[in-house]
Amino acid sequence: MPVEARRRAHEDTGRVSGNLLPERTRFPMADKIVLAYSGGLDTSVAIRWLQEQYGADIATLTMDLGGQVDLEAARQRAVDIGATRADVMDAREEFVRDYVWPALRAGALYEGVYPLATALGRYLIAKHLVRIAQEEGASGIAHGCTGKGNDQVRFDVSAGALAPALKVVAPAREWGMTRDDEIAYAKERDIPLDLNKRSAYSVDENLWGRSIEAGDLEDPWVEPPEEAYAWTVSATAAPDETRSMEIRFAEGVPVAIDGEELNGVALIELLNEVAGAHGVGRIDHVENRLVGIKSREVYEAPAATVLHLAHRALEQMCLTKEQSRFKERLVQEYADLVYNGLWFTAHRRDLDAYVLSTQRHVNGTVRVRLHKGSATVTGRESAESLYRHDLATYDAGDTFDHQASVGFISVFGLPVRTQARVQGEAE
Ligand code: ARG
To answer: How many angstroms separate the CA atoms of 39 and 205, rounded?
Structure first.
């Protein structure tokens, strides 16, 4: 290839073109598009809309990440609407192993509070959309995101990272239809819909959490009504009795509860249920979206709340001060990156390598008490703990050399005394 052509082939001006191209006319006559299909109104309409607008065959992918999806019903509906291939998969284990645990080990909480459930799920869906597109020789993938949220960014940027030649189509970003328009469109074409499930909110859920937005929550002053919540009870409705749970970690990942070893999916499901029943895991947050909008977000994440708390408590025992301090700085970077669509990047892989290395000795057990909406660490133990009783104790058995402190303080305080002598005493 001539130098000039090679340069052009690699150039990306950042203009809206190439794989973010919205104009339908410039989409090459697509043989096939693989659509992320939830079974709801938007993506059901999208199957037919994509066929009509792009003249393409549509393959669909419906994934169970621990939300309440009926995989068989979704497969049937996709076929009924006209999909030529309708994949469904239970991807809960892969989700936990490859996305949730890395985020937990990193301590990733966006803006200090959001455990990133929705964000993490998008990456796994994107990965499998791309896989199927490659299997099918499809020229594009499609998703149901609108043009205002973060999820479109996560899908589009991930597709660019995994298969830069694939086109990405987001029908809801293009078609300009209201909900009523969509229903009319579906009726005209006999598209089977299940409109009974409509909630007053926009909800996305998977094992790691439930995201609730829109409706009356758009007023940040409005207290979220109880109907907005599905996984947690209110603190007042929670039982008066406390419940303590012992969570054992191996290399920063939880492996057992109250002595019983559980796989990741079962462990998270159990914690969601038990902590949710004690009113733990409600998060009400005004969040900074990547697209520059502030939005009021309500989350339910009982397992994530308890596990982040317990994991941190164990790290306090097993990491040095310097490791803790440095990791603390990294956490924000990591959470921002996950939130901002940048999972499939070298930067994330590099940060993961550091995080993984910090977790080698994060082994032990943490006791957490659940009571009326709060989760509190009440104990921790680890064979690799850097907390030494013989050094910490004020009782008999103290092995700390008290006299050594005198010399230490003399050297440590030297610059302070020097400054006082030369520049004047502190006020
Ligand atoms: N704000 C969260 C995020 O960007 C949750 C988005 C939830 N999406 C939804 N359809 N309710 O990750």
So the answer is: 14
**Structural domain 18-99+111-188, CATH architecture:** 3-Layer(aba) Sandwich (3.40)
Residue ranges of domains in the chain: 18-99+111-188, 202-319+361-381
Q: Is 240 exposed, middle or buried (0-12, 13-18, 19+ CB in 10 A)?
A: exposed
Ligand 1: does its nearest atom lie under 6 Å from the Cβ of 211?
yes
Cβ of 297 below 6 Å from ligand 1: yes
CA of 202 to the centre of ligand 1 (A): 8
CA of 114 relative to ligand 1 center, distance in Å:
10
pTM over 0.85: yes
Q: In sequence order, what are the residues at sequence separation of 6 or more whose Cβ sits closer than 8 angstroms to the Cβ of residue 368?
A: 244, 245, 247, 306, 309, 310, 375, 376, 377, 378
Distance CA 301, CA 232 (A): 9
CA distances from 411 to 310, 391, 403, 406, 414 (A): 37, 22, 14, 9, 5
pLDDT, one tens digit for every residue, the chain (427 residues):
555 655 555 555 555 544 554 444 445 555 899 999 999 999 999 999 999 999 999 999 999 999 888 999 999 999 999 999 999 999 999 999 999 999 999 999 999 999 999 999 999 999 999 999 999 999 999 999 999 999 999 999 999 999 999 999 999 999 999 989 999 999 999 998 877 667 789 999 999 999 999 999 999 999 999 999 999 999 999 999 999 999 999 999 999 999 999 999 999 999 999 999 999 999 999 999 999 999 999 999 999 999 999 999 999 999 999 999 999 999 999 999 999 999 999 999 999 999 999 999 999 999 999 999 999 999 999 999 999 998 988 888 889 889 999 999 999 999 999 999 999 999 9
What ligand 1 atom has the least distance to the C-alpha of 289?
A: 4
The 8-class DSSP code of residue 155 comes to H
Structure token digits, residue 110 = 């966006």
- Ligand 1: centre distance to CA 190 (Å): 30
State whether the beta carbon of 145 lies less than 6 angstroms from ligand 1.
no
Secondary-structure class of domain 202-319+361-381 per CATH? alpha beta
Q: Is the CB of 238 under 6 A from ligand 1?
A: no
Q: Does the beta carbon of 313 sit less than 6 angstroms from any atom of ligand 1?
A: no
Angstrom distance (rounded) from CA 88 to CA 246: 36
Is residue 38 lining ligand 1, measured as CB closer than 6 Å? no
**How far, in Å, is the centroid of ligand 1 from the Cα of 339?**
10
Which positions are annotated as active-site residues? 42, 122, 151, 202
